[in-house]
């Protein structure tokens, strides 16, 4: 979590495309070579369920909510970054890629034209680093308009759009095993965090835990995302670079001058009985423990956003977001971007870099809380709780916080590491927090049913 970690840039050559792989070892950073891309977006008739379109492919990206969004496959270009500037380096690379690209876009909506999908580690110094991937084919739909984008590196033969649509491979006989800490150990960590909060070391510390799931057959990200999008339609069902999940939390969405963020903090489990859940929702909206935890998260977001915007609308009272497994206190912040010193409005990824980590996943005050997470939690979060999303031609994009997710094990396609965490405040109870992590693991566990 140090700020000093020097960035490393690695550009991966795509087989058959023939441009140079370069690396710029820290600390001397060089401009990574960018390929010239031919980008073509055309309107198409409604393609039906987007998730049915993805061929079996090593590189699959999805971003789907309420049936709209984008699915993408193949890699036209990719950057892997690490260190404190991992998002800014990726953003600068994408800017250079855009400058050199030959783009023709008949649709002109957020997400059409050149696009890259990415995910970044929670910690500055995590080995997981980050990646931004420009796919070869994107199919998208937004409010009744559908499109297809093809992205061809210079000299590459176009990728077949009708790839091999191998049937979805469902998980089989999934078994679970503890991650870095057992549930019992994790409760002790929560008690430790509560003691340190009461001693005045921080006001809120977000602690997470991990669980391994192993299927007897290779896991197919397309199958997992399809299940998320059917069971949790109001979340963003994502698959990016082996990280898959159904997150309800929008870190930042940028559409031209407008930005929006959905802050979540304060959680209660659903019971399955609507009447009881309504009573619980009312209790959540009055719970001083949850309201305090929520206020920390809203304040930290508003403070981090302030330098970039000319006006912001921050509702004073949160609403209650109902998901099938849990309910959250939620605040939707909207704002109008201002131009920076360079005359440009910051891109969605630049904003995500400035906002991460929010109090929703780190704690309050941020620097102390993040240090305490590192001391107490006892695991590497990888890309869990980091920004995940996409950036488009004009710097528009959507970056969520990677929650309710799992990281496929690159070394064993049958394994996935699941994560869940909770904001700990002075009034937190370890048993209740453990139960909350179980509720937050439910979308992943349901997607992994055989
Ligand atoms: C950390 C997670 O969720 C975050 C923590 C919340 C809380 O403590 O109430 C609620 C939503 C998220 O901001 C997670 O899902 O893993």
Automatic annotation (TrEMBL):
Q: What is its EC number?
A: 5.4.4.2
Q: Which Gene Ontology molecular function entries are recorded, alphabetically?
A: isochorismate synthase activity
Q: Which InterPro entries does the entry mention?
A: ADC_synthase, Chorismate_C, IsoChor_synthase
| Reaction(s) the record says it catalyses | chorismate = isochorismate
Q: Which residues form the Chorismate-utilising enzyme C-terminal domain?
A: 184-440
In the record, which residues are listed under signal peptide? none
Source superkingdom:
Bacteria
Keywords (alphabetical) are: Isomerase
Family stated for the protein in its record: Belongs to the isochorismate synthase family.
NCBIfam families hit by this protein: isochor_syn
* Protein name per Swiss-Prot or TrEMBL: isochorismate synthase
What is the protein's species of origin?
A: Serinibacter arcticus
